Amino acid sequence: MRLRYSATAIALAMCALTGPSWADMEAAKAFLDSEIGDLSVLDRADQEKQMQWFIDAAKPFAGMEIKVVSETITTHEYESKVLAPAFTAITGIKVTHDLIGEGDVVEKLQTQMQSGENIYDAYVNDSDLIGTHWRYQQARSLTDWMAGVGKDVTDPMLDLDDFIGTDFTTAPDGELYQLPDQQFANLYWFRYDWFNDEKTKADFKAKYGYELGVPINWSAYEDIAEFFTGRDMSYMGGPKSVYGNMDYGKKDPSLGWRFTDAWLSMAGNGDKGLPNGKPVDEWGIKVDENDRPVGSCVARGGDTNGPASVYAIEKYLEWLAKYTPPAAQGMTFGEAGPVPAQGEIAQQMFWYTAFTADMVKPGLPVMNEDGTPKWRMAPSPHGVYWKDGMKLGYQDVGSWTLLKSTPDDRAKAAWLYAQFVVSKTVDLKKSHVGLTLIRESSIQDESFTKRAPELGGLIEFYRSPARVQWSPTGTNVPDYPKLAQLWWQAIGDASSGAKTAQEAMDSLCAEQEKVLARLERAGIQGDIGPKLAEEHDLAYWNADAVAKGNLAPQLKIENEKDTPQTISYDELIKSWQ
Q1: DSSP bridge pairs for 139
Q2: How far apart are CA 342 and CA 351, in angstroms?
Q3: For residue 18, how many other CB atoms are within 10 A of its CB?
Q4: What is the pLDDT of residue 20?
Q5: Of 43, 303, 367, 399, which one has the fewest beta carbons inside 10 Å?
């Protein structure tokens, strides 16, 4: 859906010019008529009821100007260009919704936390910072806020139970620190048309001895990558030579996200546990019984440089070299993202559902003439160290965060805007625009049942029991901004060939522990901050984990190529239903 300053904006602007009546139901009705229409899970009476609540709650803040910020993705563009002007017209609170890079959002957030200067009145920042917010106590507990100071500006129709991501924004103290605004997962992407072609299937089975299908494990993914790389697909109208994998390798901050966004968990790093492994998480950071981080390296019981992690990096490097377009080695996340839509890629292990909206545009080589995609998304395959009960991938959850350094009145006005853009009145339409689903009611809406065939499996995934295995970074990470920036430098050394996978992960875990040690010495996170453990060898910590019913760090598996397994995509979908 194309973003535009539509009839909605024009109608609301007219309302805004008529004086005191701008903060009344006329503006709200203009918004509901021209922008929302039938795309709401609420009937018109309840929509108007919710809008009237916003009008009444906003009266003390009429004329106030506030600033909020988020990263630049389609969902937030819609909020900034369409929903913010609507909110202003309806409530009289003028909102400037800035759109900047993800790294810049974190930088602004850090600066405000460190300086106490109120830069923005609210932030949409990743729930990956939940461990940071809980330990530093610079973000408001929304649980306390909604029951206390913010009670008079908390929508009685908010319905927290309807959000699918609040497990990710709740800390070990049971408090909610962030309110989800948009979510997307990294899944497996593949050319459904090629995988279902009889000649292609026969050729694959003749070579490998089993059926071509959605790979369940990395061994099958590897075989499929080998099979398609260099294959002539012109008999199906495709290129004369295709690739069996897509990725990126430039030493750039985005390379860090590629790995902190749960690549190691897919290999089998860390412990069992949802939404994150405990006591060792998918970053390889271990916590004690009081949730205090005690180490990252195997020597302290962590798993960042353990066999599962090293295997994860080695497979990434091998597939990047053997089965990926050569140009990918020098690409960033943003540059690599559009490549599968160009029609030369057979499958991609690590593909964000946020690309869906751009991948279903008419006329693309990966689209059928009837508007359905030639591709599908499915659960990611897992590595040889993975066990049932572990998470299987990453889910990005951009979430509203109120810092304590923001004055109460400004925080209240911003909280009203945050609730407006995630409200049941608005969310279904916003979900259709950005395809970043946050509410169960929107996911289950009939409008998405009708649209599902055009979205390549997105709706089927979010309606499936499998989705709980995809989660953001958890609470073991005590300072996300400081620790996350270490990853791209370490992985970049491995990607460039400057270090082996083992050397890169040894370096990474050591650097992470330097940060943990500084936090421990500073004592600024109190009795929930890091407390480094004594050092022992891998055998010691593995035996200790096993004795306590845990897994990590696991011992090295000598044969890391297990029996390949695949499943028919159509059978997979049936099993979910």
Answers
A1: 403
A2: 15
A3: 11
A4: 39
A5: 43
Residues facing residue 99 across a β-bridge = 70
- Report the distance separating Cα 534 and Cα 145, nearest Å: 40
pLDDT tens digits along 450-472: 999 999 999 999 999 999 999 99
| Residue 475 and residue 280 in contact, taking contact as beta carbons nearer than 8 Å | no
Buried b (16+ CB within 10 A) or exposed e, 396-413: bbbbbbbbebbeeebbbb
What CA–CA distance (Å, rounded) separates 302 from 57? 49
Is the C-alpha dihedral spanning 493, 497, 499, 504 positive or negative?
positive
Q: Which two tokens stand for residue 254?
A: 């985005």
Calculated CA dihedral for residues 117, 476, 142, 354, nearest 10 degrees: 90
What pairing do the DSSP bridges indicate for beta strands 395-401 and 65-71?
unpaired
d(CA 463, CA 458): 9
Confidence at 354, pLDDT banded by 50, 70, 90 = confident
> Is residue 279 reached through a cis peptide bond, with omega within 30 degrees of 0 on the bond before it?
yes
Q: What is the mean pLDDT of residues 124-145?
A: 97
Task: Answer left, alpha or beta for residue 243, where phi above 0 means left and psi between -120 and 50 means alpha.
Answer: beta
575 falls in which pLDDT band (50, 70, 90)?
A: confident
Element (H, E) at 371: none
In the structure encoding, which two tokens stand for residue 164, read together? Answer: 């699918």
Q: Considering only CA atoms, which of 232, 233, 215 is closest in space to residue 224? A: 215
Q: What average pLDDT does the chain have?
A: 94
Q: How far is CA 432 from the centre of its chain?
A: 18
Number of H helices and number of E strands within the chain? 25, 11
Name the residue among 203, 185, 190, 199 with its Cα closest to residue 243: 190
Q: Which of 457, 461, 463 is nearest to 445 (CA)?
A: 463
- Mind giving me the DSSP string for 448-506? HHHHGGGTTTHHHHHTSGGGGGB----TT-S-HHHHHHHHHHHHHHHHHTSS-HHHHHH
Greatest Cα-to-Cα distance within the chain, rounded to the nearest angstrom: 75
Q: Tokens at residue 565, please?
A: 């397994």
Task: Pick the closest to residue 262 from 477, 438, 459 (CA basis).
Answer: 477
State which H helix or E strand residue 286 sits in.
strand 286-287
* CB-facing half-sphere around the CA of 45: CA atoms within 13 A: 0
- Which residue in 372, 398, 383, 395 sits closest to 457, CA to CA? 372
Structure tokens at 84: 């913010």
Strands (E), 363-480: 376-378, 395-401
Rounded Cα gap, residues 125 and 402, in angstroms: 10
Token pair 């049936």: residue: 574
DSSP alpha helix (H) spans, 383-423: 408-421
The token pair that represents 245 in the structure block: 């994998």
> How many other CB atoms are found less than 10 A from the CB of residue 567?
16
Degrees to nearest 5, angle at CA 345 with 342 and 350? 105
Q: Give the domains, in start order, of the chain with CATH numbers.
A: 7-177+401-464 (3.40.190.10), 183-394+470-577 (3.40.190.10)
